[in-house]
Amino acid sequence: MRNKLLLCLMVGLMLGITATAQDTKMQPLTFWYEYTVNPGKDAQFLEVVKSVGAPVRDKLLADGVILAWGVQVPLLREPGGHTHEIWFTVADWSGIQKVTAAMAAQIAKLDEEAAKTGSAKKGTSGGTTVIARMMEAADVSKTRDYLTRDLIFVTGKTNPPAGTLPFVRYNFAKVKPGKGSDFRKTWEKYNKPVLDKLVSDGVIMAYGFAVEELRTEGSFTHYVWYATNDLASMDKIRAAYTADRDHRSQEEQDVISAEFAKVLDLDASRSEMSHAIIFKVSGMK
Length: 285
Prior knowledge:
alpha+beta
């Protein structure tokens, strides 16, 4: 997650989670880990993910603690930017605690097994402790965590099929001080109906309107994400927004632009897109 904003079509990220999730009832938390993988170490990084974290997250997914989890990579690279994101979504803070506790136990178990077999090499990066393996694969000094909450969360009526690897667009917004409520009302009035129709039509798998649960970033205050099955759907989304605006009078279009301009720092606008390389949702067939 990183920086910034949207104007007319704040949108962005991933999950299919429950088939009947309602935006007014479900406000899930998502924990993000951003990693910068060392050049040529992508396969090694994914091996660590699959052997250390994936078994824990898969079990908690089966147990209903985790609603969804995945690994994704940015569609566009940038100097100094992260290369991979691992994320998991839970219903509440108790889920965060269960996941972090289970991960700590998993790491301790694997390190103990490595010590017993004599394969761990303390004080070096060539050992098989979990941290040593991760340090070989990624620049851990650049690791960045976020915890976000979807204030609005909407999914389609059916879960995506197994093997789905969504594309997710994020639009980051920096709302002017004291204007958070006004921004949400404006967004729900003009942008939410477009996204709801796209979900109903099956173009969008899911979308959310989110904030940081723990505020650590100053470059954005809100972001909207939406997930699609392919990049061709992005053209359909753009066309839907264009059609929505075009059927309005010029006067009404000007009002919409002015309403967003009142509440947003427009210079802080930023969009990103990611592609999932691992994607799992509760109930996925």
